[in-house]
Amino acid sequence: MRIIRMLMKKYHYMYLNLIGVRVIQVFVVIQVQMAVNNADDDFCSEPPQTHPQSLTPNNHMTPEKAWAHWTSLGSPKLIVAPMVDNSELPFRLLCRKYGATAAYTPMLHSRIFTENEKYRSQEFTTCQEDRPLFVQFCANDPDTLLEAARRVEDYCDYVDINLGCPQRIAKRGNYGAFLMDKLPLVKSLVEKLAQNLNVPVSCKIRLFPDLEDTLKYAKMLQDAGCALLAVHGRTRDEKDGKKIRANWKAIRAVKNALQIPVLANGNIRHMDDVKQCLEETGADGVLSAETLLENPALFAGFRTVEWVSDSEDGNQDGKLDQAELALEYLKLCEKYPVPWRMIRAHLHKMLGEWFRIHPHVRDDFNSQHILSFEFLYDMVNRLRDLGVSRPLYVKNTCLDDMSPNRV
Fold first, then answer.
1. Are the C-beta atoms of 145 and 128 separated by less than 8 Å?
2. By its UniProt entry, which PROSITE patterns does this protein fall under (predicted)?
3. How many beta carbons lie within 10 A of that of residue 322, not counting itself?
């Protein structure tokens, strides 16, 4: 009997040890899986900063809360607009250095964002200096949009819904401005986010041909929980921003009809336009897109020669040119890598006038199927060595007025 008891005791301990090993193994597997899941959404090189005005899910958004959040961010007035493949992290940081006080990400496709880890890691990156930040999604399914938004809410100050893209791809994909024909769906998208996120929801829209329809649309968005509305002052069919002026009067009408912050988009080429737009629309801030691509220093008061009038006094060489901005952009890209297609597009915009003077340099650039930073730095220096000079100008009589804090 004694021998039997000893054997039972021995195997009992062995059994417990085996259970312990198994528990440890399971624990390790769980920990590794958690680390992998967290790594999938590690968009920021540093821990995200949460804002004191963040919301509690299911809290009803009120105009008072909308304004409290906007004010807590410093009421930014000079904002980088969302641009597909163009308002990525390095470019946002460059614009922030030169006066931008907030920025949007490029439009992200909500379904692909939820399904594809590679898409998430390449198309959305940020850092602590990249605030205030709007993360913009296109969507046509409330649940999918919410799933995508939850992945970024800790890294931004607003989750924005793109309701203004007028391009054919948006029509085929059933999103953007083509949801203007499906207002119940739009309302459900806004409500889904407003009732479930810890950050406010914003929307970016275009105008209906009839102003009253636009005002009803804007009020519906506000009632659904939208905390901030950006209004592009053109209709869905008015796609050519260089030929068709944005309707600032319509934006003012929207601003007067709502109780939440309203941003104006359209006709911003230099800081004189910024001041005039704020005065005429009463908007709480302005967005710029195309002009910033050519001149990321716009919000610091710099303008290209195209917007310098011979009849105006006080314009002077700002001791800055687009080549210098291109070099600064490349350095930011080295620090915060982005797809080469984005870098290529930005250099074409920033150096476009230089390439027109020396098209052989542009042709050499276009022939490079595989880019490197060494080649790009050499290309910019090559343009300079060819004697190209395209300075940016400032109005020295208005520099103080053009400070972001004075606009």
1. no
2. EF_HAND_1 (PS00018), UPF0034 (PS01136)
3. 27
Q: Residues 338-371: pLDDT tens digits?
A: 999 999 999 999 999 999 999 999 999 999 999 9
DSSP H/E element including 382: helix 373-385
Question: Rounded distance, CA 138 to CA 160, Å?
Answer: 9
Bridge partners, 265 (sequence order): 232, 287
Q: Helix 373-385 to helix 340-350 angle, to the nearest 10 degrees? A: 10
Paired tokens of 49: 């900063």
Among candidate residues 388, 321, 397, the one with its CA nearest the CA of residue 357: 388
Residue 42, both tokens: 């590690």
Residue boundaries of the structural domains of the chain: 63-299, 315-394
CA distances from 147 to 47, 111, 200 (A): 21, 9, 15
The distance from CA 29 to its chain's CA centroid, rounded to whole angstroms, is 36
- The DSSP result for 303-370, as a single string, is B-GGG--TT-SSEEEEEEEHHHHHHHHHHHHHHS---HHHHHHHHHHHTHHHHHH-HHHHHHHHT-SS
- Which residue in 95, 156, 165, 203 is the catalytic one? 165
pLDDT in tens, 143-175: 999 999 999 999 999 999 999 998 888 889 899
Contacts of 359 (CB under 8 A, 6+ apart): none
Is-contact 260 226, C-beta < 8 A? yes
The Cα 383–Cα 407 span in angstroms is 35
pLDDT digits (tens, 9 = 90+) for 201-242: 999 999 999 999 999 999 999 999 999 999 999 999 987 767
Choice between 90 and 47, residue whose per-residue pLDDT is larger: 90
Is the distance from CB of 281 to CB of 252 less than 8 angstroms? Answer: yes
Beta-strand runs (E) in 111-224: 133-138, 158-163, 201-207
pLDDT at 278: 98
Confidence tier at 123 by pLDDT (50, 70, 90): very high
Identify whether 165 is a catalytic site residue: yes
In the predicted structure, residue 254 carries a pLDDT above the cut 60 = yes
